[in-house]
Amino acid sequence: MTNNRANNDLITRAKWFSDGATRQVLAALETHAPGATRFVGGCVRDALLGLPSDDVDLATMLTPPEVIAAAERAELRVATPGAAHGVVTIICGQRGFEVTTLRRDVETDGRHAQVAFSTDWAEDAARRDFYCNALYADGGGQVFDPTGQGLADIAARRVRFIGEAPARIREDRLRILRFFRFHAWYGEGEMDRDGLEACRDQIDGLSQLSAERQWKELRRLLEAADLAPTLRSFEAIGGVRALLGEPYNLERALRLIECEAEASLAPQPLRRLAALLDADLSRAAASAGALRLSNAERDRLLRACAAEPRVVSYMSVKETRRAVYTIGAEALVDRAMLGWAGDGAPRRHLQWRALVPLAQTFAPPRFPLTGADVLALGVPPGAHVSAILREVEAWWIDSDFPDDPLSLLERLKVVVQALRP
C-alpha cells in the first residue's frame, strides 16, 4: 500500500476516475489554475481499498467565487448554498461534484464550524475526521498523504481520529457515529481504543445533533454487512441507548444479522432497527417520529412490527401467499426474519427460513373483477358495489387465487343475490 506506483494504479483504475463527467469537472478547475485541485476523501479511500465509489469530492486552493467562475466558463451549472463555508457543487449532466476550498477551523460548537480559507494541504487535512479520509489524489492519480498516517491506516484497515480524538469529536459530535460507521464498513480487528474512550466520554453529545443527522449516520451504520462486532461496541459505550432510549434488544438485532447471512439477504437498516426495538409497534412509532424518518421509512418500520396478519413459522403455502397479497412480500420477509431472530427454539429455524423464498417468489395476481362487473348484473351504483367486490375478493383470496373466470362470475352472482339492495 505504500508503493507509489501501486497507489497510482489503484486510483487510475477506479471507474469514477476516468468517468467523463469527472474529467470534465476537473478540467474546468485545472484550466483556471493548474495543480490547484485534487480528489479527496471517500473516493480516494475507496479506490485504495479496491471498492466502488458513488460520490466524487474535490478539494481546491480556489476560492468559491473562483470555483463558480471556472464552472461557468466551462458551461457547467453550480449550486451554491454552502459557498460561504467554502463548498460549491458543480453539476455535470445528472451528477453533482462537491468542491471544497482548502480551509481550517476557526471556531466550532459541536455541530457547526466557522472556517477560514487556506492554501495549505496539510492544514486542510488536519481538520478532517480520520486519517483514512485525509488522502488526496491529483488528476494523474498520484496520491498525497499530508498527515503521514492515512496510507498506513488504509493498509491496516484501521479507523483513527486525526490528532486528539476528544478534540475532533468536540468539533462535531456526528463524528461519534461516523467512527463506528467507518469501522463497520472499512475497519478490521479491534476498534481504536483512544477513539472508543473519547466516544464513550462524549456520548451524551449525540443529543446535540438534529434527528435528521442522527438517522442519516445510523442508517448507514445499520447497512454494514459485518455489523455485529461494531454494534456490540456501540452498545457498550451507551450509543444505542443514547439514540433509541430504553428498552432495546441488542441480542435480537445480533441474531437477525446472523439470520440475514443464513438466508443470503442483503442488510436492511429498517429491519435491523425494528429488531433493536424488539419489533415493538409502539416503540417503532415513537422512534420513527424521534428520528424523523421519511413517510416511506416509517411505513416500512411499522409494517415490520405490526401484529396482523399474524406471521408464524408454520404458515402453510396458502397462508403465506395470502399474507403476501395482503401486506406485500417486503413486509412478510421483514416479519419472518424478525420472528426467526426472536425465536429461541432452533427446531423452528428452518421453517422461518423457508418462508423467505416463498414470499419472495410469489407474484400476487391482480383481482380480476371491477365495479363494472357488478353493475353489469343490474346492481345500482353506490357503496354496496364496493362491499360486494370486497366479499368476492375475500372468497377469491381464501380459495388461493383461482384463475377461473367462470367460478368468479358464479361467486359474484351469489354474492350479488345476497347483498344487493
Written description of the protein model:
The chain is of the alpha+beta class. It contains 23 helices and nine strands. The strands form two sheets. It has a seven-stranded mixed beta sheet with strand order 3-4-5-2-1-8-9. Strands 6-7 form a two-stranded antiparallel ribbon. Helix 16 (281-290) runs antiparallel to helix 17 (295-305). The longest helix has 16 residues, at 383-398. The protein is elongated, with a radius of gyration of 28 Å. The termini are far apart.
In short:
By secondary structure, the protein is α+β, with helices and mostly antiparallel strands.
Features:
421 residues, two-stranded antiparallel ribbon, 23 helices, Beta Polymerase, domain 2, alpha+beta, seven-stranded mixed sheet
Amino- and carboxy-terminal Cα gap: 80 Å
Q: What is the highest CATH level, the class of the domain at 1-156? A: Alpha Beta
What's the shape? elongated
The CATH superfamily of the domain at 1-156 is identified as Beta Polymerase, domain 2
What structural class do the secondary elements suggest? Answer: alpha+beta
What is the tally of helical segments?
A: 23
Number of DSSP-assigned strands: 9
Name the strands of the widest sheet in spatial order: 3-4-5-2-1-8-9
Overall mean pLDDT stands at 94
Helix proportion:
40-55%
* CATH fold group of the domain at 1-156: Beta Polymerase, domain 2
Give the DSSP E fraction (strand runs of 2 or more residues). 5-15%
Using only C-alpha atoms, the radius of gyration works out to: 28 Å
Q: In the CATH classification, which architecture of the domain at 1-156 applies?
A: 2-Layer Sandwich
The major pleated sheet works out as:
7 strands, mixed
